[in-house]
Amino acid sequence: MYQPKVSVMIFTYNQEHLIAETIESVLAQDYKNIEIVVADDASTDETANVIRAYERSHPGVVRGIFNETNLGITGNSNAAFFACTGELIAVLGGDDIFLPGKISAQVELFRDPEVTISYHPVEIFVHQTGEILFTTNTTAREQINDAYDLIAKGGIPGASSVMVRRSACPAYGFDPSFPVVADWIFYIEVALAGKIIELKGVYGRYRKHGFGASDRTLELLDESLRTLTVISGRYPNDRRMQEACMRGGYRYVLGELYRQTVKGNAHNIEVLEPYLLKYSRGPKRLFSKLLVMVLRHKIATSLVAGPLLGLKNIMKRKI
């Protein structure tokens, strides 16, 4: 039977009330050849003690990595990554959840030795209420078939769906020059080393609570878009790569424009104009100028915010 060792790398910080549910969702999996590596980034609450309790109750399966100082998201991700010993590595945030059968189903895809990365749809839900906002990757248009799609479509939504082949990962792990959003360029590099494939079915839940990197997108915009600058610079003669970077950048900034509009932050919309123009040409460039010209007025922003919020899921699948 094909049963390679799977390392589940969990990165956490100050999640004492959530980390147990996350670890339990892995322990409940029907795939047994696993190790669970939990990297705690010098939490100031009881997170480390919760992890230690699981180390005692599941020796040889759960292993804690306890940073003496706070390393940040990328540093802590690498603390977990380099402690993994499995042939395959599954990524899991300390507040997210694996659903039953996830690991065994995803491992099967790696029977093909050319597959280096896999992902699956996840439920995005509100921590405070449990409300499911939407489920990712439910249409063919959202499917990511190769590294070019991974770039053009702005990454993999719900990163806790990802499993990678360890031998295809960069030697330095998550690029330390990206302090917070190193996952996008990491997955691009892994996808460029082989094939990317989607596991059909919903096998995870991604928690939105207002404190994660996904809720700080404007603050992290420059760092996120630097992914495209780096990738574009590495492949200057690959026209398809250059076009994917342009499409990915425009889609990413347009998504941020949407977020600022529905929040009613008219003052932030003008800030996004140079980003939109950087990643657009021809009619799209003219459209971008007109769009910002309208939306930067607070009255216009307030008028369209409500209807746009109702169209969120449709727009995510069409743009």
Q: Can you walk through the features of this model?
A:
With 319 residues, the chain is an alpha/beta fold. It has two domains: 6-213, Spore Coat Polysaccharide Biosynthesis Protein SpsA, Chain A, CATH 3.90.550.10; 221-318, no CATH class. Helices cover 43% and strands 16% of the residues. It has 13 helices and eleven strands. The strands form two sheets. It has a seven-stranded mixed β-sheet, with helices on both faces. Strands 5-11-7-8 form a four-stranded mixed β-sheet. Helix 7 (221-234) packs antiparallel against helix 8 (239-262). It is globular and about 60 Å long. The termini are far apart. Mean pLDDT is 91; it is low at 313-317.
Q: Could you give me the name of the CATH homologous superfamily of the largest domain?
A: Spore Coat Polysaccharide Biosynthesis Protein SpsA, Chain A
CATH class (first level) name of the largest domain: Alpha Beta
Count the beta strands.
11
**Strand fraction band?**
15-25%
End-to-end C-alpha gap: 42 Å
What is the strand and helix layout of this fold?
Layout: E1 6-12, H1 19-27, E2 34-40, H2 47-57, E3 62-66, H3 72-81, E4 88-93, E5 97-98, H4 102-109, E6 115-119, E7 123-126, E8 132-135, H5 147-152, E9 163-165, H6 183-192, E10 195-198, E11 204-208, H7 221-234, H8 239-262, H9 266-269, H10 273-278, H11 282-295, H12 298-310, H13 312-318
Offer a quick outline of the entry:
The chain has helices spanning 19-27, 47-57, 72-81, 102-109, 147-152, 183-192, 221-234, 239-262, 266-269, 273-278, 282-295, 298-310, 312-318; strands at 6-12, 34-40, 62-66, 88-93, 97-98, 115-119, 123-126, 132-135, 163-165, 195-198, 204-208.
